[in-house]
Amino acid sequence: MGERLPEGTLVLAVDAGGTSCRTALVDFGGTCRGLGLAGSANPLATDDGDAAAAIVTSALGAVDMAGADPADVRLVLLAAAGGGHRPAFMQMISTSLGLRGVHAPVAMEADGLAAFCSGTHLGHGYVLVAGTGAVAHRVEGGRSIRSVDGLGWLLGDIGSGFWVGQRVVRAVLADLDGTGPSTGLTPLLVSAMGLQHLVDERDALNGRPRLVHEIGITSYSELPVRLARYASLVFAVPEDEVAREILDEAAAGLAVTLRAALADGAPGPVVVAGGLLTGAHGLRQRLERVLGDELPPEGLVPVVDGLVGSAVLALRRLGVDVDAAVFERLTHSVAACRG
């Protein structure tokens, strides 16, 4: 991977996720030369400084893995939630990279568009992302022309990791408080929060289980979106009625979001991304059952993340024709770098 390339023939493609950040160093032929990893880099899920630091760490990790010259990077393409205009944040990244020898311009695209481009080389179709947040896009001409949801944890993101995680915590509190049904989610959440030592204790002032207070304190002490970490608990108790209800509601909500993107659109692949839809735990299958023949014959096309798509978008910005052959090379070489 240390082969010296002509000057200015590399791009850094960044997938800035709420859980982790991944960066691929890719040449103009579509070969991934190096891969870097770091922690949360979604500026909506952590503060700008930490997000920028994660992006820089993962980018430099990709350069180091390849043994490449940072001066050969021609573009840094960041795929992040919203893909909006955040000049101060972008300048923070650009300045930090520049101090380390990467003087290429930094551009941003929506993570949903990057996810779509991870699933197909075609320039038209649809994508539904359900990770920490949730959003759907209709893509035409290689650009998102219609977005649905993606409104953040306070106003939307129906069926997202946050949405599911919040309902897990609510269900457990209802169980403990006697206002909801008993659920197998309760011991799982108690364990995940490290509160097992309080299982049999009650508050002397109000008679409530101490767990009610401590779960509240733990939840409120962090950024709200961090509740997404508890979403996976619903898959650990597949026979639990409360967990099944949460998953059914999540699938129904995601179906509404995707239908709005599909409405009056031309046929095309439907790519899905994000931890809730790409695992083997069944939410994707639930969604396919809800949508039925509204989907194309191939069903939903899952992708691991938006890393390949970020590279596709970076190469296209620089005039590279990412056809089926280049896309296949890129997909396979990124997988090889992941190990």
From TrEMBL:
Matching InterPro entries: ATPase_BadF, ATPase_NBD, Euk-type_GlcNAc_Kinase
Pfam families assigned to the protein according to its UniProt record, in alphabetical order: BcrAD_BadFG
Residue ranges of every copy of the ATPase BadF/BadG/BcrA/BcrD type domain listed in the record: 14-313
This protein's name: ATPase BadF/BadG/BcrA/BcrD type domain-containing protein
Organism: Tessaracoccus rhinocerotis
